[in-house]
Amino acid sequence: MRRQPRRAEREPTVALINIVFLMLVFFLVAGQIAAPVETDLRLVRADDPDTTPLGDVLVVHADGRLSHRGRGVDSAAAYLSALPEVERARARLMPDRDLPAARLVAIARELTRAGAESVVIATERETR
């Protein structure tokens, strides 16, 4: 009786390399799809903010200017009316750290008068 020659076991390195490559491509594409945040904006700091995806966010600069996706906006109500109907219930603000609080409150009130049920303010998580 002859013995069968032993086959060398194949290592699944090719499959592992393929998976790592696909993950790399995914993260490269996902990083490019996200809308860039305004470069001159310094966010308000908070210890542990309730994190929600930003989606379409209204940026409020220190001098009170409003912008959405890098373009100037005339008013908070105009920003809200430009959103799709399903996203108008929750308005998202990203204020500059140096924005006066009275201006921030006025913008939030304008958004609620325009039909927003809630106003979410994006802040920067403090790192210790």
TrEMBL record:
GO annotation, cellular component aspect: plasma membrane
Record InterPro entries: ExbD (IPR003400)
Location of the protein in the cell: Cell membrane
Lineage per the UniProt record: Bacteria, Pseudomonadati, Pseudomonadota, Alphaproteobacteria, Rhodobacterales
Organism (species): Albidovulum inexpectatum
Transmembrane residue ranges: 12-35
Presence of the UniProt keyword NAD in the record: no
A Pfam cross-reference name: ExbD
Descriptive protein name: Biopolymer transport protein ExbD
Membrane topology listed for this record: Single-pass membrane protein; Single-pass type II membrane protein
Molecular function as annotated in GO: transmembrane transporter activity
GO biological process entries: protein transport
Homology family: Belongs to the ExbD/TolR family.
Keywords of the record: Cell membrane, Membrane, Protein transport, Transmembrane, Transmembrane helix, Transport
Major subcellular location class: membrane
